[in-house]
Amino acid sequence: MYKILIIEDDQIIANALKNHLEKWGLEAVTIDDFHYILDDFVAYDPQLVLLDISLPFFNGYHWCSEIRKISKVPIIFISSTSDNMNIVMAMNMGGDDFIAKPFDLTVVVAKIQALLRRTYSFQGQVNLLEHQGAILNLGDASITYDDQKLELSKNEFKILQMLLENKGKVVSRDVIMKRLWDSDCFVDDNTLTVNIARLRKKLDEAGLSDFIATKKGVGYLIGD
């Protein structure tokens, strides 16, 4: 079931959208606290966002820009300010479509379904893993922290993904090595140590010191 995040401060409109989307077999949630929209986005990990332009505190353009730093998820702007300038601005900020208010709920669903088909028939679902403000994007093998986007090597990405998926648990060196080099060939144990060291250095330079802990003689972990 596809998950839709509705970022709309008019609760009547937001609830009408939510109820209608659920009738069409889509999962949907609305935003209650407009201070922490990006946190809610990461926690919910939607496949599509419906985003109003006029919002409390920061407008939709701001939040579109913030989401685009960490995700390529489809974004449809919904707004009563549907002049050409706002439509162009919405597209330039990273929006994928624009729906003017007042709108027909059937048209909204049709646009959502079309965009979901175009996006996920070819790309598959994009997932995010988050810890202490650091966000690992499984779609493009990057990690974002404090407005910095770090590109990871194939092995760095696999290591970080394993540790985040097992957050709070020690992942043994043997398990990590099996995941990285899935073969019967002998791999020098020092090779993993080098990969971990490079990953830690990259995280340290981004401000994520002590992100990965060592359990001596066992393996590595990321704490809860």
UniProtKB/TrEMBL annotation:
Annotated Response regulatory domain residues: 3-116
Keywords of the record: DNA-binding, Phosphoprotein, Transcription, Transcription regulation
OmpR/PhoB-type domain: residues covered: 126-224
DNA-binding annotation, residue ranges on this chain: 126-224
Coiled coil: none
Modified residues (4-aspartylphosphate): 52
Family matches, as InterPro entries: CheY-like_superfamily, OmpR/PhoB-type_DNA-bd, Sig_transdc_resp-reg_C-effctor, Sig_transdc_resp-reg_receiver, WalR-like, WH-like_DNA-bd_sf
Signal sequence segment: none
Reported function: May play the central regulatory role in sporulation. It may be an element of the effector pathway responsible for the activation of sporulation genes in response to nutritional stress. Spo0A may act in concert with spo0H (a sigma factor) to control the expression of some genes that are critical to the sporulation process.
Protein name: Stage 0 sporulation protein A homolog
